Model the fold of this input.
Amino acid sequence: MTTSTEPLLTPQATAALRDVLLQYGYTRDGIVTRIGIEAAHALNRYDPEPALQLLGESDPLGMLIRLFMCGRSIPIVQVDEAVVPLLEPAGEGLVRAAVYLHPYEKWWAVSDFPLFLRPEARDRRADRVLPIGPTATLLRRATLGHRVKAALDLGTGCGVQALHLSDQADTVVATDLSARAARFAATTAALNELDWEVLEGDMAQPVAGRRFDLVVSNPPYAVGPGTVHCVYRDSGRPGDAMCAELVAAAPDLLTEGGHLQFRANWAHVAGEDWRERVAHWLPAGSGLDAWIVQRGVTDARAYVDHWLEQSGGEEHLGQRESWLRWFEDRKITGVGTGTVVLRRTDRHDPVVRIEELSPEAAELTGGQVADWFTRQDWLRDHDPLTAHFRPGPGVRLWQEAGLRPDSVSGPGGWHLNQQLLKIPSDGLNWNERTTPLGVALIGGSGRPDETLGDQLTRLAEAEGTDRSRLVLAALPEVARLVERGALIPG
Done:
């Protein structure tokens, strides 16, 4: 049986460090009180200068901020003994922090320094443990918030997702391929007095045979040749195979009704629909509901440059040229970025939706994810014809018309080109083409004494059409409108 990873510090040293951090106010609120909100925001952007201008030379909180957030060296004589285990020599009687100790929300997170603060060659190690970044924040924002028994943070890094899972799960397991990351995550847990099981190993291997109610992952998903230069970035799998492997593992990782959520990249290949590519990740007969949303596509060259910049620049190693050549050989023109949400249902009719959010959409939230699955359950478990519907909040209809080229001017010459539904749906801001039938269904809803079946009977009589054919046309339209939040079951 795999044993839980040990933290960097002994229990006694961890307790002593925690006491010092609390005593001197090295918390998010304490730092804001000490240097002000603007300088604190600058620190979170990895800009230490505003804070350094406000810090004294020897006050204990200032010393901690200089060391652990600004990345500066200080004389060893100024250091509290409890802090020493997390320091390293910096020459001439100076010491510097060996880790980036970040007050994050109500916790502390232990990672390596961002390269903005520590650009030296010795800090560009392949097994760097990243501090909390935008991708981790986006994943957390999209994570479901309901209470669960067992949760897994797969590819934990410094442990940020596991911190949040601790607020909603009875037990938390965190895994990482990197032994160094596992020790950092274990230190994050110990410092915050949280009882995690931290395991080292590749992908789902450390938890083989175990199931979880909620699995979150911010894995090394970079699309590339499969060579490993940075453990946090490169999975060792070519292309987007790592994401496909994680999807394939979901049926064995999840309990009935359990969810897997992770950030992902996928290749955009010339002549290939990216939706079909991602759909092939789902195992046949897996019983997985899937909602996979793309938020953007990055050109192949810009994608490679972005990753190289994030990892400190490696052009001198020839990595850029070989990476781009690998893309060109496989006709990869760009890389899509988004979120994958899976639910194990063991149903014979899983719902799979792979789509792109509009530029106007806000970032995905856990509440929106929960609502999407709730609407899918309603559609599977209810007969829409017997239900009462009302329009979704904020739904608007936009109509575009043009004059026919061969018509005389006047009202009779207008031709309706398209009708668009603007559906806020709590921030997703769908823009959907719709049909006259969809317009009629929404416009005629909201009558408390009329079911959808009654409404269709009324429409058939008014149009002089066959009701059964109208029902066949209306049901898929209703399902789409309910999924989008344009029609709300009463």
Q: What stands out?
A: The chain is about 35% helix and 25% strand. The mean pLDDT is 93. The CA atoms of residues 237 and 312 lie 22 Å apart. The first strand starts at residue 74 and ends at 75.
